[in-house]
Design brief:
Structural class: alpha+beta
Number of strands: 12
Distance between the termini: 90 Å
CATH class of the largest domain: Alpha Beta
Mean pLDDT: 76
CATH superfamily of the largest domain: Histidine kinase-like ATPase, C-terminal domain
Order of helices and strands: HHEEHEEHHEHEEHEEHHEEE
């Protein structure tokens, strides 16, 4: 045994004349780009570097995908810099949303000015022609497209910013009744929408626009999950908890489809920013992210139940706003201490 150990030690202490060639071969075979710089100029580029960047004498500019790790060393009396390309660390969701917010904020004002001009000319044209004119419908389609563009800008800004809006309140039941005709038009003839609303107004701490965003996103996602048509069921339930605080009166909204359902790994990411199951160009991946942010800001919670072949149900719990409760009162988690009692339902 001692003879073997001594043999290994002798090999370690002996500098092999092949070492420089071995190191050069290793650098050439390295799977990512490596370079060596002296006096701000590249004096060595390995094979992968040459394949990607050519024989440039200068280090390529940084981008979002890669960073350059710099290591100083000395050789032949010169100070050198070893440059190794590394994948850039992933950007956190919060950072991505902040970037989106800053980007959209920079162009939103100018974009809205353009849309305002389009909407103004739509009004002028509509005032000059009768509703029976064949152009009236085309003008209305232009108006709808412009309003959708404005809505997308608002959605991006709402997702990207951190501050909350001033307190609002709206009757969710009234909002559902008012927009249900439009929803039925949007989902098409192959999708049937049912509405089952609890008694009372069901006032919650969101604005009318936010309530519409919640419902539109949930219903249109449900429609997309049923390519061959089906039924989307919307229902509200008034939940009473033990106590008299603002979080003891909850309005539950459920939107259920009979579509394809989702696998657990897909369902786990469904509320992530920019995640979408739709084909490129058919979804921004911000719809459900927007819904979750609105619900979170209102002190509510949102949950998902789904299974392959059994459809999907999304449930939203929002604190109800009553006359004696302030809309901006601090909220508790509405799932704590549930003592559920359902009011009688009223068909809508």
């Amino acid at each position: 045994m001692s003879t073997v150990l001594r043999s290994f030690r002798d090999q370690e202490d002996t500098e092999s004349p092949a070492t420089p060639a071995l190191l050069a071969a290793a650098l050439e075979a390295y799977p990512d780009a490596i370079a060596i710089a002296a006096d701000n100029r590249l004096i060595y580029r390995n094979r992968r570097f040459r394949q990607v960047y050519g024989r440039t004498e200068h280090l390529p500019q940084k981008n979002l995908d890669y960073i350059w790790q710099e290591t100083e060393f000395s050789a032949d009396g010169r100070k050198l810099l070893l440059l190794t390309r590394r994948p850039a660390p992933p950007i956190a969701d919060s950072q991505r949303l902040a970037l989106v917010g800053r980007l959209v904020g920079g162009v939103a004002h100018d974009f809205n000015n353009l849309l305002t001009g389009i909407l103004l000319y739509c009004d002028l044209m509509q005032s000059k022609i009768s509703r029976s004119n064949a152009l009236a419908r085309k003008i209305e389609e232009i108006r709808t497209a412009a309003e959708q563009g404005a809505g997308l800008i608002r959605q991006l800004m709402n997702v990207g910013r951190e501050e909350k809006d001033a307190p609002h309140s709206v009757s969710l039941n009234d909002a559902l009744r008012d927009i249900s005709p439009l929803l039925r038009h949007l989902v098409g003839e192959n999708v049937h929408i049912t509405l089952d609303l609890c008694e009372g107004p069901g006032v919650v701490g969101v604005s009318l626009a936010q309530a519409q965003q919640i419902v539109f996103n949930l219903v249109l996602n449900a429609r997309d999950a049923m390519p061959n048509g089906g039924q989307v069921s919307m229902a509200t339930t008034s939940l009473n908890f033990e106590g008299t605080g603002p979080t003891d009166h909850i309005l539950e909204l459920t939107v259920k489809d009979c579509g394809t359902g989702m696998e657990p790994q897909t369902a786990a990411r469904i509320f992530d920013p920019f995640f979408t199951t739709k084909a490129p160009g058919h979804g921004t991946g911000l719809g459900l992210t927007t819904v979750r942010k609105i619900v979170d800001d209102a002190g509510g919670i949102i949950s998902l139940e789904t299974a392959i072949g059994k459809g999907t149900q999304i449930t939203v719990h929002l604190p109800q706003v009553q006359a004696e409760f302030r809309p901006d009162t601090a909220r508790e988690n509405p799932t704590h201490g549930l003592a559920r009692s359902q009011n009688n339902r009223g068909a809508a």
